[in-house]
Sequence to fold (1433 residues):
Amino acid sequence: MTKYGIVADLRRCVGCQTCTAACRHANATPPGVQWRKVLDIETGEYPDVQRTFLPVGCMHCDDPPCMHVCPSTATRKRDDGIVVILYELCIGCAYCAVACPYQARFKIQERTLAYVEGATKNEDTRFDPAMLGVAQKCTFCVDRIDDGLAKGLKPGVDPEATPACVNSCIAGALHFGNVDDKDSNVSRYLAKTEWSRMHEELETGPNIYYVWDEKR
Amino acid sequence: MAPDGASAREVKRVPTYCYQCVAGPELLTVKVVDGVATEVEPNFKSADVHPANGKICVKAFGLVQKLYNPHRITTPMKRTNPKKGKDQDPGFVPISWDEALDLIAAKLNELAAKGKVNEQGMPRIAASFGGGGTPTQYMGTFPSFLGAWGPVDFSFGSGQGVKCTHSEHLYGEFWHRAFTVCPDTPYAKLIVSFGANVEASGGVCAVWRHAEARGRGARRIQIEPHLSVTGATSSKWIPIRPRTDPAFMFAMIHAILFEHPRDRLDIPFLKHRSSSPYLVGPNGFFLRDPASGKPLMWDSRLDRPVLFDAADVDPALEGTFRVAKAYELGADGQRWDHADVLGATSFTKMVEHLRQYTPEWAAKICDVPAESIRFVASEYLDAACVGQTIEIEGRTLPLRPVSVQLGKTVNNGWGGYDTCWSRTMLAVLIGGLETPGGTLGTTVRLNRPADNKQASAKPGPDGFMDYPMNPTDKENWIGMPQVRNANRTLIPLVANSPWSQALGPTHLAWLFQQETPPEWPQMQPPDLWFVYRTNPAISFWDTPTISAVMAKFPFTVCFAFTRDETNHMADILLPDCTDMEGLQLIRIGGTKYVEQFWHHQGVALRQPVVPPMEGARDFTWVSTELAKRTGLLASYNTYISRGAAGIPLRGPNYDYTLAPDVAYSHEDIWDRSCKAASMEISEGKEERDLAWFKENGFLVKSFSQLDWYLYPTMVERNMRFELPYQERLKRIGLELGNRLHEKNIHWWDAQLEEYAALPEWQDFPAKWENVVVKMGGTPEEYPFWLLTSRSMQFSWGNNVAIQMIREMARNMRGVGGVLMNATRAKEMGIAEGDLVEVRSPLRATKGRVALAQGIRPDTLLIIAQFDHWATPFAKDFESPSLNTVMPISLDLTDSTGSGADVTRVAIKKIGGAR
Amino acid sequence: MSVRFDNPDRAEPWAQRHWDLRAAGNFIGGGTGTGFLALAAIVVLAGSKTVLPFIVIGLGFVALGLFCVWLEIGRMFRAANVLFHPQTSWMTREALVAAPLFGVGLFAIWFDDRMALVATAAVGLAFLYCQARILQASKGIPAWRHPLVVPLIIATGLAEGAGLMGVIGWFVVDDRFYMQFLPPLFAVLLVARFLVWRTYIRRLGREGAPLGTLAVLRHYQPMIFGFGHLAPFVLFLMGYVISGRSALLSVMLGAAMALVGGWLIKVVLITQAAYNQGFQLPKIPVRGIGMPRPGAKPGWSEP
Fold:
């Protein structure tokens, strides 16, 4: 079986937002729409203070609440675990957006541009009206994965078959792969580390694995 | 899903590089869809040769918006309003490239006719390029044009001296050829970092390597007033009072020297690779052998004085010894002949000097518990692994996986000497200077040859490395400044390399434009000023005053991407091809700034990923045109052929030299560079032309890791690091003082005091408080320290007009606002998002408050540099800037000419949150 | 143009902006309309022969609500796709129930059939239940996913329906005699709604919820209690003890307040108190050396 997931090693992340930028490029999302981003979280009180950087986005849950609530069946879960949206089916009710406990979904009703002066050439080239008025979110760069697989490449190992955020990570904090394959890069990573997932109590089965220590 | 996946579209990936910051270059590819650049990606093919696995940083992703920016200047422009000033509309009108180049060439020809230096002996043309030499990676053959022209004044700079790691540049290069200093992160076990924010400023190599280090259990202790991203990812944060770092470091050394056994130190290193055993006489200079003039040591085996370079001796590290006959050599040839004189070893001098600086003493100054200081000292010793070795490329070297790093504001300005000395001394004590795991220099800029650290370390006097000090002796001292910041006159350490002017105390150039010291004639502005990739009207200090000064420059030519605060004063604007439109071949790899030390070296091509915007011109084309129109073509071509554009065009078995009187196309010039570079790299075996590089992007060969370290060369050439005792600096300082006083110059006296053989704690915070008083305030009225900090998204990038970058930066806390301690803010009735005024005695800046616990209650932080009023997009930020409120003052300038990004301020709520 | 200053430290929950007043309108229309139909069924079962006005008013509210939500969706012309997912989506189910609701309602009007009105009201209750489950299935909004949201939506729907009946029922019913039991029923429904509402807020606070949600709910609590419950309750009591024209006026005023109070609950619940889940930091990671520290869930009340 295949179930793709991301390992985010919080020990390594520095909050540089390179993944955020790479995602914006790879997916041509409009300004402010960050399918992937890194939160800057402070805890503690002076002088005992910690700051942690937390990459977030769609968790491609095992049991995705967004999919269950979706009235149009636009949100679907593929056999490889990736939760995708069929934009042509989506009615843009945003029910999925309020069902998602990870704030991973966006809906843009009107075209937004980087500069008020007008669309830049790249914005025009990449503008897709099908993305307006529908839900959108991280796809694990599903096109890259499918194209890569078609070329015989291995997602998570070959950059051409790996999500842009993972490819871009300058701290080596993000890893992608098949968590169902115990020999995969991510499974081996998880086997030697302490990790947990966000909002486990909601029983969504999220597939971003946050690593915070070596196995002791 | 990427909407450009439609199959009908033509898609290609074009390799190029990004060198927007000093921590570059990064190799990338740009996805081009139907002739439009759309996506930036790492060049995955570089993963095997690049130290950070071929990654690229967030700034590179702004380049597409830079390329297609609606605010770009699309045609050359000419100023029509002769009045200049912030309040004046420049009245720019479009002109043709021909007209623009003719105007500039006419001006240049007029200046050449008048003489290239003015009546005061200063270059008539000046040039300012952005930080860290990054513009060179974008301006093609322009340096060759400037070379062909002759004298150019680089002394206005763009913030150098106040925005770089200035003291480190000078002392680092002096002590270990380390213009930039970094830990040998791949081997580090412990890094003690005083405010070094490498996670923001060290580029991908630093981020990658430090993450790897954390991954294998290496620790970093971050000592700084606010919890930066680097502090965040460190194992411990110690919030220290601003400007007190030297006290902490002195106390660390004190603890190491007085509270731990001596054998925790690297005794052989101290004895043989440092000046520790050199005997110091009663006047504070080395005791020298009367016959040879060489410094003396005490041989403990034979119990007698020996020359420093005597073979097979065991020099005494500590103690005071009686020498029968010796002399001391002071300033200006002053000589004391001694008989039966007592000499203490340099090491002992240091130990005695540091006796006073106990952790308890420092605790009060630094507002840090003494136990924390002891803890760091003890951790440092534990991690030093004294006695251990490592084999690198078949050679056994000491392994000392511990180092101390200094941030920009820590090593600049008053206290810079002290912190640089302490950090380097801490490395020397455990034998970790230029050894694996330890403290390394990665760039040479003041010594020659600049491209080879090992070759630049030539034996000099007294067993140390030679150093090209500016003269301080009576005959050769340059009493009349040759450029507008008087760098060679005032700063012996700044040397005289092509970098020295721009490195010198650049703020003095601006200061002297306002008022030149009476001993010199009032300095005239440059007749022509070239500006590229810099915006000193924002990036310097006291920016309104700097703007007023540049408004007086009669003829300013700005290469301009968008309008900005500096080119608001320009006479001509030239739209050059931006990052993704220009053509250039640069050297990559080897060792470069910050953490750029590679296992490879070679060259990489920057190329137009799409056809340049109509109206923009390649920098090399512009340079050639200017050379042609000013009759400098032959000389310009010669400069290029000799390698001023990066690659010498002639080698042992190849010759692509340019003919003197042909105006070559920029494609032709870089084609020749590509061929020459590939022949150089392959040692004449393979010629690769421009077309090959356009396809493949880069070409490298291996680079020996041994060349990361200077230690093997020091051993080979039997040289010692010039520490702990600064006899040479002491002498030079005295001589400089004599020269200045002979000219009746006394305004540099405070700076002269820094030329001490061993650094002494001065009440550094008080120096800032005194400036407040001098400006008519009291320290109580300005109770906060205002600091600044880099953000990875913006630093060096000249990218403030790029929406994507702004968006990314805003994901990080505090960027664009004033960061303040939440508890202190509550006491003062200030809430998150409130509009506040941050006021220094100079003036105020306004912004919105961001609250955090990770900042000292007595400190405010403004990240990056804003306060734009002309740059499109950025002028709407309503973001504050330290630069606006930071005075430029001789009182805040240290002996190397540097100043620190810190000032005393008050904060006041002037409006509620939106 | 201006550049927005926003606090990028968005780890803590923020008020969702996906569903606004238009979505609240659906819950208001649906609740009030179906609640009204339920009350109408009681009136009819008590002997009234009024059908057409009751159905028109009840279904009118439901239709208005659906129109509101149609305005909210991003792709209006794909609205029919809402029907594709009855297996799990309560939104599909709501839409599917709407069809028989209007069908039976039209049947009741066409044939002036009292029992068909009762059947319409029964389908209406199913519709109301679907609406309650829509909210409860919104896992991303702690204030909605709480199990007490279901009784809350049903209780307020009924109370709103009673309120509406109390405002206009007198004018359309064939004989006011059939409505004489209404004031005490109103009072009971009000008490029930208040108890569910209060328990809901208390349990949210006790079990842990976004601080923003609790702050909003507590902010509106006095108004919802005083305006939406206490005052109408007193007015109903007055209507019971006094007589004549002023008794009717008193009940009508109380009913109007109860109705608006219910709408207020929905507006607050949908547009103000709907803070999302926010993020959780599972653990503070080890940087190089040391032990991991407990994580954090910024912006949440302690359970």
